[in-house]
Structures are given as C-alpha cells and as structure tokens.
TrEMBL record:
Main localisation: membrane
Name used for this protein in its record: Glycosyltransferase family 39 protein
Highest classification ranks of the organism: Bacteria, Bacillati, Bacillota, Bacilli, Bacillales
UniProt record, GO biological process: lipopolysaccharide biosynthetic process; response to iron(III) ion
GO molecular function: pentosyltransferase activity
Length: 480
C-alpha cells in the first residue's frame, strides 16, 4: 500500500503543478514562460533559504528565529490589514459577542441549527470575547499564535520523519506561505483546528501510539479539532487505516494486539468526547443539537452542482431553506442529489473540481483584503502565491518520487501521503473551496520538503565534482 500511496501523492503534486500553470499564467499577462520563470526563481529562493538555515543556525537558534519570524510577519499582517468579519465569519463572531453577554439563543436560529458543528468554534470565540472584550484584533492575534505554533509542530514532524533539513525547510515554507499569513486576519476556524489536527498526526507519525497514553492524547486532539472544525472523522479514519496497515506488517503478534487495542482506544476516545461535549452543551442550554451537521446530504448535493463546479450555491441554499429542517429537508436534498447523479456528466465535473481545488489561485487574498483599503493588492499577492505554489508542487513531485525508495511505515510519513490522497478523493464528491487546501498544507509542505532536500543533495554532489566552486550556498551543511 505504501508504494501506491507514494505514487498517488506524486500524481497529486504533478496534477497540482500542471493545473496551476494556466492559473498562474493569467497573473503574468497570460504568459506561460513568465510563470515558469518566476516559479524557477521561487524554487531557487527556497533552496537558498534551506541551505542558509542548515548552515548558519543551530537547532535552538533556528527554533527561536522560526517562532519570532513567523509571529512577526503574522502580527504585522493583522495590524496592517483590518479585515472586517463577513459571511459565516461574521455570523459566528456576532453570536460569540451575544454569548459573552450570556445570550445563547443564537444556537436555535436557522444558521446554527443547520450547522450545529460551528457552535464549538463560536464558543471558543465567546470565551475570548468574555476575557478580552469584543475586539476582533485579539482573535486575529491568536490566529497568528496558532499559525506560528503549527510551524513549530511541522518542524518537529519533518525532523522526526525525514531529517533536520526537511524539518527546517517545511517549517519555513509553512510559516511564510502567503495564504497562511493572509488568513490570519480572517476569523476562520482553520488556524486552531489545523494546529490541533497536526499535533495529533505528529504524535501518530512519530510512533507515540507505542507509548502507554499516546492513543489517549491523539484521540483527544482529534476530538478537540473536530469541535473547532468538522474534519475530525476524516483524521480518525486516516489514523485507523494508517495504523492497520502499519500493524499488519509487524511480526510481533503480542505487540500487535496491544497496538490494535490502542488504535481502537483512540477512536473510542474521539467519539466518547464528542458525545459528552455535545450532551453537556445541550444540557446547559448552550446548544440545541449535537455538534454535527443537521443536513447530511448538503455537501454532496452542492458538490455535484455543475453550475458552480461543486462550489457553494445560492440557488441550492434557497432550495434547501424552502423545506423545514429535518427529515423533509433531508429527503428534498437527497432527491436533488439523486437527480444530479443521473443527469450530470460526472467525469467532466470531477475533472473540473480537481482542477480548481488543486490548481486555482488560493482565495485567501480575497477573504483577507475584501472591503479593506488594500483590496487593490489582491493581484500582487496572488501573483506571488502562484509562483511559490508552482515551486512547491514541483518539489512535491521530486520528493514523492524519491520517497519510493524508502519504507514509509518505518518513518511515519506514509500518514501524510494518505491524508493528501484521501483529502483529494473526498473532495471529488463534496463541496470545494480553494481555501480548503490550507487544511492540508502541513502534509503538503512536509512531503515536498523531501523534494527540496533531494535537490539540495544533488547540488552537494555536483559541487564535489566542480573544482574551485567556493563560497557557495550549497557548501556542505554542518551537523544539525
């Protein structure tokens, strides 16, 4: 299964590379050559940054610089860009302000009845507002902290799964990837949930399932992530699949039994915590429904909307709201879903959805700069994002192909290949938005970091065969 996963991730990176090129060219006057040139410049900049970080800084110095720099750039962004809450972000923030005043009646309105899983993140915002006042700036500053913390976690995972070089370059790319920075000024639940899910995956990938209580912490982190953003079930399934494949290949029967029990315990902890939290909130009168979507067919129905290429649809929203919430609305949505399965050209739709999700420019510039004084800078930031996304996709192809020589189960990075491939597969049939790529960015940068390391090693080998190549940034790195 591991070679198949690695090949699958290689194909995904290649798909992202090919499909993002025309979108990138649109920001360079329609010129594919200019897009490729700027992507090459981005690749060179990444290689130089990686070599410099490897040569010049010890482990402690690097971590300090990583935290300081990633925090500084995010703090600078949220202080410069005054993004007002809009759309769902505004609904959750307004509800949090009411909740801080003791009014939780919002949980019974149409919005939170449909998307009851958003109550968890809204309550997080409620606590922040209660402690610090109704200022969006504090929430944005916390986003910056979560982003910087995730970069540190990515570093730890990359170092454990590959080597220190990969850990450093993956952390740097995560810390300075423009959409990660720009979205800090947006009150999205992605910042905190990504940190929690990445922590859980890091524990799993680095072998903590072998420890006595590692399974407990992984289950708790996935449950906490689910309370903030409804992706927990995806991570639990990925963890179980990864664990089963890993365990089946182990010869020690006794040890296998223990690890299987811990894997089951992980899933049990996840589901029990969610049930307990949901019932406690309902009992306290804070929530009206369990923390789960009350329209199970919505994302599938929208995901097969040909007119929006699987994106959010106002027409679908109006259609759903014309029926009362519950079994009647479920049946109406299921009816439309079945109709689309019969009438829509699925191959064409799925192709276009995959092309948009993995190839189109990230929507972070829109969400961050919308209704601000800097709105005119969207094209400039998109141009930079396109160049670096192309570069990372190219390194991803190299890294995934290079990983075919290694035993992924032993090093843990098969988990991240599984996450990428699984995430891509699921979004073929459910609603898509390009900002959803940010949920998988830790896995995306971790796997492609091995491609950067591979090219770095090629450069080292070339240096040894070229006399008089002195003072090069590719000079052999000292021990990390």
């Amino acid at each position: 299964m591991t070679p198949a996963l690695t090949i699958g991730s290689a194909l995904l990176y290649m798909w992202a590379l090919i499909q993002s090129l025309p979108f990138a060219a649109a920001y360079f006057g329609g010129s594919y050559i200019k897009a490729i040139v700027w992507a090459a410049v981005a690749m060179a900049a990444i290689l130089i940054a990686g070599a410099a970080a490897a040569r010049r800084l010890g482990p402690k110095s690097f971590l300090l610089l990583l935290v300081a720099a990633s925090l500084a750039v995010r703090l600078g962004w949220v202080l410069w860009i005054d993004t007002p809450p809009v759309s769902d972000f505004k609904d959750m923030y307004d509800a949090a302000v009411r909740g801080a005043g003791g009014d939780f009646s919002f949980a019974g309105n149409e919005y939170f009845s449909r998307w009851a899983y958003l109550v968890g993140f809204t309550l997080y915002e409620t606590v922040v507002v209660k402690l610090f006042g109704a200022s969006v700036l504090v929430l944005k500053l916390l986003n910056a902290v979560f982003g910087a913390a995730t970069a540190v976690v990515v570093y730890r995972i990359g170092k454990a799964c590959f080597n220190a070089y990969c850990g450093r370059i993956a952390a740097l790319l995560y810390a300075f990837y423009l959409p990660n920075i720009m979205m800090c000024s947006v009150l999205t639940n992605q910042h905190l949930s990504t940190l929690l899910f990445t922590l859980g995956c890091g524990l799993l990938a680095t072998g903590r399932l072998r420890s006595r209580f590692g399974w407990l912490w992984i289950g708790l982190l996935f449950a906490a992530g689910q309370i903030i953003r409804p992706l927990g079930a995806f991570y639990v399934v990925a963890a179980v699949v990864y664990g089963l494949v890993w365990l089946v290949r182990r010869p020690e029967n006794a040890r296998r039994t223990v690890l299987l029990a811990r894997l089951a315990g992980l899933a049990v902890v996840y589901f029990v915590v969610l049930q307990l939290v949901g019932q406690l909130l309902i009992g306290a009168g804070i929530a009206r429904y369990p923390l789960a979507a009350q329209e199970p067919y919505w994302k599938f129905m929208v995901g097969l909307n040909r007119e929006t290429t699987g994106g959010w649809s106002q027409a679908d929203t109006d259609y759903a709201l014309s029926f009362p919430l519950g079994s009647v609305r479920d049946e109406a949505e299921l009816t439309l879903l079945r109709e689309r399965l019969r009438t829509v050209e699925l191959k064409s739709l799925l192709w276009d959805k995959a092309r948009l999700l993995w190839g189109a420019d990230d929507a972070s510039a829109y969400w961050s700069l919308y209704q601000t004084k800097q709105a005119q800078l969207q094209a400039d930031f998109n141009r930079a994002e396109r160049a670096f996304y192309l570069a990372m996709a190219a390194f991803g192809v190299i890294g995934a192909l290079a990983l075919l020589r290694r035993r992924a189960e032993e090093r843990g990075y098969a988990l991240f290949a599984l996450l990428l491939v699984g995430y891509a597969a699921i979004h073929l049939v459910i609603e898509i938005q390009t900002r959803y790529r940010l949920d998988m960015m830790p896995a995306f940068v971790l796997l492609q970091s091995f491609g950067i390391y591979t090219v770095h090693q090629w450069m080292q080998t070339a240096r040894q065969h070229i006399p008089n190549w002195r003072h090069s940034p590719w000079k052999k790195s000292r021990s990390l």
